[in-house]
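pinned: reference chain
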Amino acid sequence: MTRTLLMDSSLLANAETVVSRARTGDTEALGELFRAFEVPVYNLARRICRTTEDAEDVLQETFFEVCRSINRYREEGSLWGWIRTIAASKALMRLRRNKYRDADELHDEVVGNRKEDTHLRMDLEAALERLSETSRAVVWLHDVEGYTHEEIANMMGKTPSFSKSQLSRAHARLRTWLGEEMIP
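pinned: its structure tokens
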């Protein structure tokens, strides 16, 4: 199954209505939530977890939790932000449970049109795979998902300085492996 980075924009426009329906137990509304956020949740989980199987488990666990706790969603932030936090937490819990390494190949969500883009993407993915699970998770959560060090520390049960040092070390390794021009 090919996965993309896009969410269902029609749901995002009427998220409040869908959440209200889901809170009453409307299974069709829960299905709409799943369909709208399945791809971005899977992509987040896949970048943190090493295997597609783990990412699929995280996807399932995330939506089980969404269904179970939809009544606790306070609508203070975006619906995606709430679901993303659940997904990141589930992925990090899976990392803690699974201390093995797997050479399972990453799925490409987006295929570049130019050869150098494809090579650059493959180099970056290979370099990210070389990082420890913890470092890779911190890089992904901070640099791609936009979490703060405080949020990452809270999710991992660590301190913000732990997150900062993991990110700094990971960036240094990636710079060494990929060259100075690619890494911030």
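why pinned: Confidence is low (pLDDT under 50) at residues 1-6, 100-117. The domain at 1-103 is CATH 1.10.1740.10 (Rna Polymerase Sigma Factor; Chain: A).
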